[in-house]
Amino acid sequence: MAATDAALWEAIQHDDAGAFEALYQRYWQRMFAAAYARLAAREACEEIVHDIFLRLWTERHRLQIDCFPAYLAAAARYHVARHQRQAAARPLHYTDAPETASPARADYNQGETRLLDLDLEKRLAAALGQLPRRCQQIFLLSRVQQFSNDEIAQQLHISRRSVENQLTAALRHLRVLFKAFLLLLAIW
Fold first, then answer.
1. Is the model's pTM score more than 0.70?
2. Buried residues in 169-187 as b, exposed as e (16+ CB within 10 A)
3. Mean pLDDT computed over 149-178
4. Position 105 confidence tier, pLDDT thresholds 50, 70, 90
5. CA–CA gap between residue 157 and residue 112 (Å, rounded)
6. pLDDT of residue 65
7. Among 12-16, 18-22, 63-67, 101-105, which stretch is predicted with the lowest mean pLDDT?
8. CA distances (Å), origin 124, targets 118, 119, 128
9. Contacts of 93 (CB under 8 A, 6+ apart)
10. With 0-12 CB in 10 A as exposed, 13-18 as middle and 19+ as buried, what is 137?
11. What is the 3-state secondary structure of the chain?
12. Could you give the domains of the chain?
């Protein structure tokens, strides 16, 4: 009889490399297929699966995982999205004579944009800090870690409707707080 995911994870947390190998064999093909469905790049998908399992092993004493399929699916989505963002980023091209650079390729200093992003991140953190702990947790699982409502409900052992209600409350709170900020940006 095959060991459960929970039993394997407990053994892994006690440094059992054999249990890690069993968990890897159980899930690597599913994770690769999920990543490949979004990227269609074999090498990138292999690297993503490798990175996820490497993190599982190196962080095994710190991670708390209740549902492996949900955790691994979310990790794969996150890594694929990160890979896509990195692939979309334009590299900077340097030239000794900026006047000869074509205007369509001109890169610009994004310092001001970065400062606005940092300000927005600080405001978001402050706004989230005003929410109840459970509401914050659900919002972060949904919007940052990109878990589905069903995955969140399963992980937190609550109903899907409770997840939806908490997300609605969080989004309503953020809309009210950011309304003035967005108006300021629109005028600026």
1. no
2. ebeebbeeeeeeeeeeeee
3. 88
4. very low
5. 43
6. 87
7. 101-105
8. 10, 9, 6
9. 101, 105, 107
10. middle
11. CCCCHHHHHHHHHCCCHHHHHHHHHHHHHHHHHHHHHHHCCHHHHHHHHHHHHHHHHHCCCCCCCCCHHHHHHHHHHHHHHHHHHHHHCCCCCCCCCHHHCCHHHCCCCCHHHHHHHHHHHHHHHHHHHCCCHHHHHHHHHHHCCCCCHHHHHHHHCCCHHHHHHHHHHHHHHHHHHHHHHHHHHHHC
12. 5-88 (1.10.1740.10), 112-187 (1.10.10.10)
Tokens representing 70? 């949900």
pLDDT at 109: 60
Locus of tokens 């006047």: 99
Write out pLDDT tens, residues 52-84.
999 999 999 998 888 888 888 888 888 998 888
